[in-house]
Amino acid sequence: MTDVSQTEDRKPSRRLGALAGLWPFLRNYRGMLVGALVSLVLTASVSLSLPLAVRRVVDGFSSGELPLLNQYFAAALGLAGLLALGTGLRYYMVTRLGERVVADMRRAMFARVIGMSPAFFEKIMSGEVLSRLTTDTTLIQSIVGSSVSVALRNFLMLIGGLVLLTLTSPKLTGLVLLLVPAVIIPIVVLGRRLRRLSRENQDWIAASSGKASEALQAAQTVQAFTHEPQSIAAFDEVTEKSFDIAMIRVATRAVMTVIVIALVFAGIVGVLWIGALDVREGTMSIGELVQFVIYSVLVAGSVGALSEIWGELQRAAGATERLVELLDTIDSVQDPAGPRALPAPVQGAVAFDGVRFHYPSRPTQSALDGVTLRVAPGETVALVGPSGAGKSTIIQLLMRFFDPQEGAISVDGIDLREMTRADLRGALALVPQDPVIFATSARENIRFGRPDASDAQIEEAARAAAAHDFITALPEGYDTQLGERGVMLSGGQKQRIAIARAILRDAPVLLLDEATSALDAESERAVQQAVERLSQGRTTLVVAHRLATVRKADRIVVFEQGRIVAEGTHADLVAAGGLYARLARLQFTDGEGAEAL
Asked: Are 498 and 431 in contact (CB under 8 A)?
């Protein structure tokens, strides 16, 4: 199983072979690949042909044959035209390929991550995931859409140039090849260091994105506690660390470039000095020497370009590793190979049998300890108890965000692990304790519960959730944009939007996790009446701290330290004493207490 852990635990990339992770995305566009390669070979071939034309022109001046000279100039002009055409075609093909591959990678990554269970996000911050979706894919886009093409072109120029250098002057070429080990050694040695620094740099960039995302999502809390200096300092720390690593990487790459180019051109100057002596002695023509000079420049330029691109490829290898790491991460919650379907229609019978569970981040602390619970179709069951007793964990497991370590959970007699998560969750409607409001209109926020719902159905659900009046009072009514995380709404309004969303879903099993905790008394009464109507004929699980909201439940189940310690009606539990009776005495006012107790 691939484990996506914190930044400091990641190992640096050791090989360019990590770029092979791009092949599943490239192979879908073989036509573009072939077109890019053809245009690349064309431009390299034309570039290698130009020195031959120049040699003919130079020697043509010496011979004084004007018609032949004109032909050479025409040939050179034709080659230049082919070079321009091939270069433009290559640029278009590889740039389009890069854009297409990166778009596909981003889609594949988002599709992979959005379906991951909460255990995944206990190990990696959402800001870091976003960094991989943006920064890393942008780097890969520049590699696929430019650097790889340039690298291949320069590689062809290097090989072709060496061959043509040999044909031009074996003696001078032999002297040039003596320089190769001196050039390759710094590339290999410093390249390894660049690989490690590139991966570390990308990791710190991701860490800074994670810090920024966390602080920005809680901007009001940061401001309320005047924590801006500390948040800024924390962000500055990781940003500066990223900058420091980047500067070391840049310096290393600069040193490598200086060494390589200095060695290459120093060697070429020495070789040309020997060539000039050959021309003086008559063993080589001026045109041949010019041809050799041009090929030498092309080879030297190719080596210099490859040394620069090598660093970019190292960075791309690290980025590819990080992206493939996400794509290959195995979720702790999996759909079965041969799933069973829920019966139609879904009755809504829910059963927990000997369930033991601890959250992945707290392996020694039991959230549920041997819980057995059965809820009949159409029954409304309230789950109460102190904070941390395991109430919300019941909802988390029933939604199959996690799987229990022991025991089984079933709906209509089918184990949750035997059905797909989509099939299961299609039968559930959830109102979470912390409602999520998307940065879109009020209408679309409610429609999130059922994408095919009509406007009339949306408004009907809003009325049932006591949300219609405040929505129509918004500047543009149901079309009002609610802002990121619903910043335009109060806590109670957000909760009523979430309840309307669940009502619209019209699922056979309704899950309410502190659904009325942020409502005022009047709204709570209206929503409670709506929930009571909605609960008719549906299996309903209600998690609540406020016992006044659950007195009418068919059954109340009391949790303490992950175990069920009592169950029954409100009256039975009050009469029996114990934890529920103590909670009731603490919560009810004198007026309510006279009626409730």
From this structure: yes
